[in-house]
Amino acid sequence: MKKSILLILGITSSIFASEFDYGTGTFSMKGGFIGLEGSIDTDVSTVSISNRHNNALGKFFYSYDLTWYKSDTMKQAQKTYNSYASQANNFLVDNGLPNVTIPSMKHELEGLDVNIRLGYDVIHKNQDNYLGTGLIVGISTPWIDDMVNIIKNNKSSGNSGLDLYKKSKTKIKTYKIGPSINFQKSFNKNISFYGLASYAYQTGDIKNSYAKADYSVDGTFQEYNFGLYFTPFTTTSKWGFLTLSPRIYATIGYKYSKWEVDKMSINLTGHDFNSDMMKSLGSKFNMDSSVGYFGVGYSF
């Protein structure tokens, strides 16, 4: 009976060990929308719940993170958009059609990224000193609110009202799987340096409500996370075969993540393009974020 209670305590303490992080940084997006060949970026905020490394069954480990992203508005000036429209207009002129003016657009991203890692510590001294390799599996479900300027404020043309935007939503759902590495190295009993790196194959679909676009996409996901771990005090208690080390700790770190897919192009311009035209306008679609964060956590 006593051993069963100790085992339950050990399992529940591992499950409920968590870290809460808040981060701010930069989010960038390139391609995917007609005219968006150059990169646009904006500020982004993140909130995460994570467990970077927890051993179970000896040297086997698991980790997880759930991150909510929310960006400010990304804007691209109409003039800049049209400077990237030369390929489209050359195609249209060659086919006896008039030039196309690409309207200005705004985008805002929001969504959830969930990752689970399972692996084995090839080096394990203690919970503050280890090197583990494993597998990452995850799902990402962001969406992008799109706003396209269809009437530009122009007093000389008699339009003295506000700019008029049409709205649409681009929904993304992807799944990923690939290798991952976790490590931590202590400088002393209070301060450690930790890191995490993952590279994964990612597949899923992208849908846009206005253009009625529905893409199946394949690409790659990569993430790098490094930081300092600080705990003001540590204690160790042994209950039979079970060892508990309750602690409250703080972290400060930097995380970079990037998702890249093959050619795609969503048409929000209001112009009708044939399939060959859309293919010629397609470009790699990239999203990446660079975030500095701080967090607090607890473990047993």
Structure description:
By secondary structure, the protein is mostly beta strands. It has helices spanning 2-15, 78-83, 86-94, 275-281, and strands at 18-30, 32-33, 39-55, 60-71, 74-76, 105-126, 129-151, 164-186, 191-208, 213-230, 237-239, 242-244, 247-266, 283-299. The chain has a ten-stranded antiparallel beta barrel with strand order 1-3-4-6-7-8-9-10-13-14. It has a two-stranded antiparallel sheet with strand order 11-12. The model is unreliable at 1-14 and 153-162 (pLDDT under 50).
Helix content: 10-25%
What structural class do the secondary elements suggest? mainly beta
- Strand fraction equals over 45%
What global shape is seen? elongated
Widest sheet, order of strands: 1-3-4-6-7-8-9-10-13-14
Number of separate helices: 4
Using only C-alpha atoms, the radius of gyration works out to: 24 Å
- Quote the distance from N terminus to C terminus: 21 Å
Oligomer: single chain
Number of strands: 14
- Summarize the main sheet: 10 strands, antiparallel, barrel
Q: Which segments are poorly predicted (pLDDT under 50) over 5 or more consecutive residues?
A: 1-14, 153-162
Order of SSEs? HEEEEEHHEEEEEEEEHE
Mean pLDDT: 77
Features:
mainly beta; 65% strand; disordered N terminus; 300 residues; 10-stranded antiparallel beta barrel; 14 strands; 12% helix; 4 helices
